[in-house]
Specification:
Blueprint (H helix, E strand, L loop, with lengths): L23 E6 L3 H14 L2 E7 L2 H10 L4 E4 L8 H8 L7 E6 L4 H9 L4 E4 L4 H12 L21 H10 L5 H8 L3 H15 L4 H9 L1
Parallel strand pairs: 1-2, 1-3, 3-4, 4-5
Helix pairs in contact: 2-3, 6-8, 7-8, 8-9
């Protein structure tokens, strides 16, 4: 199996031995106050993430980039004045720019491919469960790129998996049941089912046998 491709920033996150030792500092940009409030609450409850600032449009977000220090931006694609595309374009020539996760309801393949081409580090649909965004955020904090399978120019399906999904896939090779997986990762069996469902969808398979076959191929 080819090693997982990672892209790290210069300086902050890529040099940390454990991103959970210090909170991952994030900024939020979304036109919806409800989304902003929900993300703030989600990150506060998680404990690994500190929300530094929130903005309601891309121009305000870019101003925050110039004035504040944070690691990752959670950015909507459609916003007043400057959307996600404009944010990514503005950050392309900026040294040590924060890594950007596009968080949007626009899941068309063209949107995902455009975000990847402009240097986004991750992409998450607003229809996904909150746990999925957290997985993507922590994977990006560890220097990885996370995009949905089949979007953009990705060739290795395993690259679309979050770190937890790859850990679960590896555990499937050991023949562990869902209950055993839940004990191994200290989560509920329902959480394991959630991860497996996403894992199967990303790999384009129907069951664990198909997922293991891809891992071992």
């Amino acid at each position: 199996m080819a090693p997982h491709k990672t892209i790290s920033r210069t300086g902050r996150l890529s040099t940390r031995p454990d991103v959970t030792a210090d909170p991952v500092r994030v900024a939020i940009a979304d036109k919806s106050p409800l989304i902003v409030r929900g993300l703030r609450s989600l990150f506060a409850d998680d404990g690994r993430i500190e929300t530094v600032v929130a903005a309601t449009d891309g121009e305000l977000f870019l101003d925050c980039v110039n004035r504040m220090d944070f690691d990752i931006g959670i950015v909507g694609w459609v916003m007043p004045y400057c959307g996600g595309e404009g944010v990514l374009e503005a950050l392309q020539d900026l040294d040590d720019a924060p890594r950007i996760i596009i968080y949007t309801g626009d899941t068309a393949s063209g949107t995902t491919a455009r975000a990847m081409a402009l240097g986004a580090a991750g992409f998450c649909a607003k229809t996904e469960a909150p746990e999925h965004l957290l997985d993507i955020l922590m994977s990006v904090a560890n220097g990885q790129m996370v995009f949905p399978l089949g979007r953009g120019r990705r060739t290795d399906p395993l690259q679309s998996l979050t770190r937890r999904e790859r850990e679960i896939l590896q555990a499937l090779c050991d023949g562990k049941t869902n209950v055993q997986l839940a004990k191994t990762f200290d989560v509920s069996p329902n959480t394991i089912k959630f991860h497996l469902r996403n894992l199967y969808e990303k790999l384009g398979v129907r069951n664990r046998a198909g997922a293991v076959a891809i891992l071992l191929s």
